[in-house]
Amino acid sequence: MNQEFSFTLHKKQGQARRGTVHTLHGDIRTPAFMPVGTVGTVKGLYMDQVKGTGADIILGNTYHLMLRPGAEQVAKFGGLHKFIGWHGPILTDSGGFQIMSLSKIRKIKETGATFQSHIDGRKFELTPERAMEIQRLLGSDIQMQLDQCIQFPHTEQEAEKAMQLSLRWAARSREAFGKQPGRGNFGIVQGGTNEKLRLASAEGLKQIGFEGYAVGGLAVGEGQPLMLSTLDFTTPALPEDRPRYLMGVGTPEDLLESVARGIDMIDCVLPTRSGRHGQAFTRFGRINLRNAKHAEDMRPLDAEHSCPALSQYSRAYLHHLMKAGELLGMMLLSWANIAYYQSLMQGIRDAIDAGTFEDFRAATHEQWQRGDTA
Amino acid sequence: MNQEFSFTLHKKQGQARRGTVHTLHGDIRTPAFMPVGTVGTVKGLYMDQVKGTGADIILGNTYHLMLRPGAEQVAKFGGLHKFIGWHGPILTDSGGFQIMSLSKIRKIKETGATFQSHIDGRKFELTPERAMEIQRLLGSDIQMQLDQCIQFPHTEQEAEKAMQLSLRWAARSREAFGKQPGRGNFGIVQGGTNEKLRLASAEGLKQIGFEGYAVGGLAVGEGQPLMLSTLDFTTPALPEDRPRYLMGVGTPEDLLESVARGIDMIDCVLPTRSGRHGQAFTRFGRINLRNAKHAEDMRPLDAEHSCPALSQYSRAYLHHLMKAGELLGMMLLSWANIAYYQSLMQGIRDAIDAGTFEDFRAATHEQWQRGDTA
What we know:
Two copies of one chain form a homodimer. Chain A has an eight-stranded parallel beta sheet. The relative contact order of chain A is 0.13. Helices cover 42% and strands 20% of the residues of chain A. In chain A, helix 6 (128-138) packs across helix 7 and helix 10 packs parallel to helix 14. Chain A has 15 helices and 16 strands. The first copy, chain A, is an alpha/beta fold. Chains A and B meet through helix 13 and helix 14 of A and helix 13 and helix 14 of B.
């Protein structure tokens, strides 16, 4: 494949968009959910299972991979795709979020961020230029600018300061990205939940010009209503002809409602993290398999689903595995959740194609609320 | 399948035997390694992976399953095969070993054992009759007598007392087993490392009469030389026309050397437990993937093996996964180890069939020692 990085918008219904992102390692059908492979594995799944659920693209993380095994080392291995055995597109986050959430003793300066590794306390510096160099060494198909993330709640002044710094880092990231045929560089809109700041951020990024635009700094504690209202005024400010990526979100409800607000790509650790803790996301809503009420329920999570994790294992067995702390319980529920997320996205794509997105959205909410247990 | 439980001895070379055990749920090619599925899962593997490695039979455990989810509950689910999704033969241990090794405040009386659960301290009683009832409720194909296991080292008097009690429990277990077409009941030879006691135990069991005979109470700390010398005098005392099962052993070396001493069936948690801790067993000997020397080694564990876990993942990636504490590392190494154990057994069976077992034995030891790393 030698194609240019590009985005084709096939159809719109309301704000919801149906498209295709073209990359060096293949196409991404949007709206897309991207499973997270932080350190080079989607936790608990084999890559052929990830592919089998319908995922076109997975994530890797600059912060984690620079610490271990190291970007230069991954390059020596022939790049991240080869090292981890995933041959489709890979998006790598720039590390900004993890510097906020994971590292110890971090210091943000104009030049970049210095921080101590959460693994062994070693000191690292991450500048916009180094973040882009790492992602180039990893060989990722979509490379994110370095940004400054801030915790919620924050003052308007803090949000503005971080947004402005992120904009300056965006320009430097863009410069450092250079030209990489088939690969794309995304800018990240910041500005908290403040409309004026978000619009200024979007405007600044558009002036720099990116292959795609991400909405960052959400799902950091502000709650779903504030997150969605922020999307309401942010996505219309983004270019129609570029993919829009909502970072680190969320529940199936969040996915559906973000798509309804014009989001094309989305990633989250929630399906695998929740799976490891015994929670399944299904057509029928959330099911906590640790709950004793499932102990004698011989029904699978969803008899009609094509994924074996959803259709071939009883809730009683899943309950037993989770109570016994067995790896297989974590494996099955992680797989089941990724499979459900992907089938939700397929349902969304089909509905937009068919012009029935609003019906699909209502029916999906209704079924989640109805559930299938007493 | 409605066949009777039986054993066909196809060929002998020295003490090594090639045979087939016929059960209600299918045939077991011997010598056989039986992966351990203590609580209803071979830790870290999908059942189709277990099957794919060439395993004909897996183990379940009376002690664990009586505590959770409970034998009556498993029976309500339609039996263990259905509950866990394994459709081949299942052997269940009687719980004697776990009462020694896991339970709190145990008390052994003539009638049976009383103990407290290692999970929640609940009190249980396990008599020979109840151990057999539980295994019948589970629906296992090979049901073990209840025995009394003792720690190593022990006095001859302790070993004799436990052996004699185990013999009386053997008679009661046999009585309780009754008639179960297609299913077999195995007696367990005890007696520590003492020849006189082992021979008396074997003689007593033969007088009761079982479908198969197990050698218990080994691999409890006595070391390989003493274990093998115990087999040297124990297996010749067992009936030629019944399968012989060495319980809870061991390394690939132990497997090969036990087969050379007339053992037909063997089980151990070692391949999965070691896999979870980063150790691989291969044709080239043991490889500790946590060791830094593998960090840049892009070779798979064994490029020529049919199991993807051995042939499709680099040692560098496995090292990375283990250092990062990732589930996939544990999954892959557990799978790789079970696959290697099964291919070793296939090699053993082929060699006995071909009359080349001694050559195979020598070449295998030689390759383990040679290794393939500096």
